[in-house]
Task: inverse folding
């Protein structure tokens, strides 16, 4: 559904995307992650046909978006970071006007219901909150029953309930066979939603793969307060210490915690603040962008 091979894009002398490659299959949610300026939006804009790549090959639904922008646009939905709405139209009028130039469009009520915005149908766009505007954007992106959906930071500004609603919608669309390319700064969102991901930094992919496999291959951590009077060398596992908090990075955090607890019991020590954590996407993200 999406194939990117060696995509390169510069603005003047500035290389924003430096030869990245990835693919996304039908029914897959693919998350493109990375800090501000990493090149995520540029990548989406090239895929959606808004920008031309300088080099590399890009295919969406087997089409080249630079040559067949119309064909791509007809079968894809897009939610960019800044939407341009007419402030004096109501929510329903906005959707209606988009329906006029969308083929096989959903009924207005259905699109609004999907985006959780039905009760705001008669409200003027200028009166919507930031999160509600994102929901209107989502309704428009879903209007043409897209086979590929590009979502650039879709839940920014949404309250927790609206975020969850959006996740359910995204999962539903993916379950119906569509492919979703998502950028987000909420790593919990990526971890919950995405089947696969790529972390970008300075225009390059620095880590990526299947979400579950990649996280499973990452080390977890066990941390606790180092008991008074002890030094890191007294602990039976290799730890790093910041302040009084000792941290052990390990592939098996449960086993490490058991070893620590039996050692503490034997010595009559109490391990305060004991925390056992499997690897999170946040760990991987920080490691990826730090080492880049
Ligand atoms: N039209 C433009 N002209 C010049 N430079 C640009 C333009 N658009 C983006 N850039 C630069 O290209 C780099 C990549 O921008 P891009 O918007 O793709 O990053 P991003 O990963 O989407 O960031 P964010 O998380 O902040 O949305 C940035 O350094 C940005 O300043």
Result:
């Amino acid at each position: 559904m999406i194939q990117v091979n060696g995509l390169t894009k510069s603005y003047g002398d500035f290389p924003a995307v430096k030869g990245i490659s990835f693919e996304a299959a039908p029914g897959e949610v693919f998350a493109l992650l990375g800090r501000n300026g990493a090149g995520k939006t540029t990548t989406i804009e090239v895929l959606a046909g808004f920008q031309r790549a300088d080099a590399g090959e890009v295919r969406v639904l087997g089409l080249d978006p630079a040559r067949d922008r119309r064909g791509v646009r007809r079968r894809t939905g897009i939610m960019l970071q800044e939407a341009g709405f007419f402030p004096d139209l109501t929510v329903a009028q906005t959707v209606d006007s988009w329906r006029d130039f969308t083929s096989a469009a959903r009924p207005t009520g259905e699109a609004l219901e999907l985006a959780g915005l039905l009760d705001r149908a008669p409200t003027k766009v200028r009166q919507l909150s930031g999160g509600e505007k994102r929901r209107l954007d989502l309704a428009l992106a879903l209007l043409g029953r897209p086979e590929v959906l590009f979502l650039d930071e879709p839940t920014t500004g949404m309250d927790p309930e609206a975020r969850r609603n959006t996740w359910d919608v995204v999962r539903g669309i993916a379950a119906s066979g569509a492919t979703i390319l998502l950028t987000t700064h909420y790593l919990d969102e990526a971890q919950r939603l995405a089947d696969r991901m790529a972390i970008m930094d300075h225009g390059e992919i620095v880590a990526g793969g299947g979400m579950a496999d990649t996280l499973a291959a990452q080390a977890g951590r066990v941390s606790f307060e180092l008991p008074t009077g002890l030094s890191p060398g007294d602990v039976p596992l290799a730890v790093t210490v910041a302040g009084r908090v000792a941290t052990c990075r390990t592939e098996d955090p449960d086993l490490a915690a058991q070893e620590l607890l039996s050692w503490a019991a034997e010595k009559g020590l109490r391990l305060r603040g004991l925390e056992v954590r499997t690897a999170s996407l946040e760990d991987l993200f920080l490691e990826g962008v730090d080492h880049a």
Observations:
- Residues 191 and 281 are 6 Å apart (CA to CA).
- The longest helix spans residues 160-175.
- The mean pLDDT is 91.
